[in-house]
Design brief:
The chain is 80% helix and 0% strand. The chain has 14 helices and no strands.
Length: 365
């Protein structure tokens, strides 16, 4: 049964898809977004009628939706598309799980907006290049980069806040806390950067190796690769004879055949290989450092209980902002998510402060 929150979600999606359409240069891709906006709008109208509410009860776009639109204006609408796609997937999964629990039939496109979007793409007479561009954009950094920024800052803040409070508990907030906090900031940021560099680099090397092997197979045994293409097309529901003709046609162009085999057989998106491991490492370093500096900053000009209290207050504000930012992806209440983040962060810091206090007393004794 839909509720007002469901209607708000549909209204927000209508608003954001329309903004995507208005800011999309490619007319064919913009048309996809407009169709999605119309679908979401029709869902909102249907929900309103089901609740026996008059049209004037239709809510306006939420603060979350307007914030995402502002982010799109500043950083580009790929960010909005990434977040919107994640929201669609999350909503679809929630509805499917609910239907499974209540033993209701899964109807497909009615509960899965991602499938609706796929149907629009397949049914629209748009060029292959436009489809490829749309696919690469909605798989691009988009919401993932925004999420990485929030979570990276959260990691830095929570881990260093806990470290600082642990040392403060053991030393009563004296000068050693600043040294420990800065060391924790640098160690954590460098560790995050190195981990990100290794992750990106190793993935690129693995994919490049697999792609090279696929090219060698294509050069040495083209008939086998043609058979693989034929099987791929058959699996997509294409008749056997047509699949054979398509495979034979594609194999005449080795580069195109290699591109298709890499995508369909190996599941590798070539666009993902273009990312810089160094840029990813640098990005990770600064995201962690931004969060980690918050609990350390007060100890740069204060000490003792005043520094501890100010550090706790600043960290609590930072935790609330991070919790509120997470709602851009989850759609939850800003107050609920923000205060939940504050409670968990303060609890972690309190535990380490208590442990530090016990260690300090033990060493002093």
């Amino acid at each position: 049964m839909p509720d007002l929150r469901s209607i708000q979600t549909e209204v927000d999606a209508t608003f954001l898809y329309k903004k995507l359409a208005d800011n999309e240069e490619n007319k064919e891709v913009a048309d996809i977004f407009r169709q999605m906006s119309e679908i979401e709008s029709s869902h909102a109208d249907a929900f309103l009628k089901k609740l026996n509410l008059s049209p004037d009860k239709m809510p306006l776009p939420s603060f979350r939706a307007k914030t995402l639109n502002r982010i799109g204006k500043i950083f580009g609408y790929d960010y909005v598309l990434g977040v919107l796609m994640d929201t669609e997937k999350s909503l679809s999964n929630s509805i499917i799980n609910l239907k499974k629990q209540t033993k209701q039939p899964i109807t497909g496109t009615e509960v899965n907006h991602i499938k609706v979007l796929r149907n629009i793409i397949e049914q629209s007479e748009i060029s292959g290049s436009s489809i490829a561009r749309f696919e690469s954009r909605h798989r691009s950094v988009g919401g993932n980069a925004l999420r990485a920024a929030v979570l990276g800052g959260n990691d830095g803040l929570v881990s260093n806040f806990s470290l600082v409070m642990g040392v403060a508990g053991a030393t009563a907030g004296q000068e050693g806390v600043l040294l420990a906090g800065l060391a924790g900031l640098l160690a954590g940021a460098l560790s995050m950067a190195l981990g990100e560099w290794i992750s990106v680099k190793s993935s690129q090397e693995l994919y490049e190796n697999q792609m090279q092997i696929e090219m060698e197979e294509l050069e040495t045994h083209p008939e086998n690769e043609m058979k693989e293409l034929e099987l791929i097309y058959k699996a997509k529901g294409i008749p056997a004879e047509q699949a054979k003709e398509m495979a034979a046609e594609i194999i005449r162009n080795p580069e195109h055949a290699h591109e298709l085999l890499v995508k369909e057989e190996l599941g590798i998106n070539a666009e993902e290989l273009k990312g810089s491991a160094f840029e990813a490492a640098l990005y990770s370093f600064f995201l962690f450092a931004i969060g980690a500096i918050i609990p350390v900053f007060p100890f740069m000009f204060l000490s003792g209980i005043n520094a501890i209290l100010l550090s706790t207050a600043a960290s609590a504000v930072g935790l609330f902002i991070i919790g509120a930012a997470i709602t851009l992806f989850t759609g939850k209440s800003i107050w609920f998510s923000g205060f939940r983040q504050v409670i968990f962060g303060l609890a972690a810091a309190a535990i380490t402060f208590g442990i530090g206090k016990l260690i300090g007393v033990s060493v002093a004794g």
